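Record type: monomer structure entry
Structure origin: computed from sequence
Chain ID: A
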Amino acid sequence: MKVLAIGDIVGNPGREMVKNFLDKVIKDLEVDLCIANGENSAVGNGITRAIANELFDAGVDVITLGNHVWSKKDVFRLFEEKAKIIRPANYPPGTPGAGYVIAYAKKQKVAVINLSGRVYLENLDCPFRAVDNELKALSKITNIIIVEFHAEATSEKVAMGWYLDGKVSAVYGTHTHIQTADERILPGGTGYITDIGMTGPYNSILGVKKEIIINRFISHLPEKFEIADGPAQFNGIILEIDESTGKTTSINRLIIK
């Protein structure tokens, strides 16, 4: 089974890259399931119903979110409609939405879990305990389980990878928008990479106009973020998973410019 995970889609440039390249990537690489992080896909962060439909129409099967999950009110409606959109599982009990979803690929059930880190981000419930709680039920349903960890600190991401080694098929990081070169298969058969990168403006600082971020560092004055113009990139990973064991057999970075 081949799974494509797309790094944080930023604004219209990122969405255009998905619309222009995803169909070809799916066909050329024989992708069976596509997961994409959409929490920055709308103007000013978050996701709208129209954008969610746009991504699904382009070929995305599951949309994950992160710390900007509540930026657009449409997300509450999407959760009510039980669209294949998930928010971090370590939000407190009773929070709208779900932290995991069951998708299907090659007639097999695939569980996708979304988690948020706590280092330098909002102090949510413990992601390690939260994923343990999800696995109690999900491991009885399928042995193909993919975890997206939306976190800031590389140490927290690496710790999650080792913590879940042998328990899930793959753990990959999002949020920092910079693709890392540490993809590997851990000893227990879990595919791991600290961050899968960003799908959005290439000549930017994390998708934002360079001069805005540079000025903020120099002046320490607030300034409205604006999505950068110009050429864009498409970042992600391709996982090959053994359907009988649920273990990852290969993990490769994907970069399109």
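Annotation 1: Residues 11-29 form the longest helix (19 residues).
Annotation 2: The chain has one domain: 2-256.
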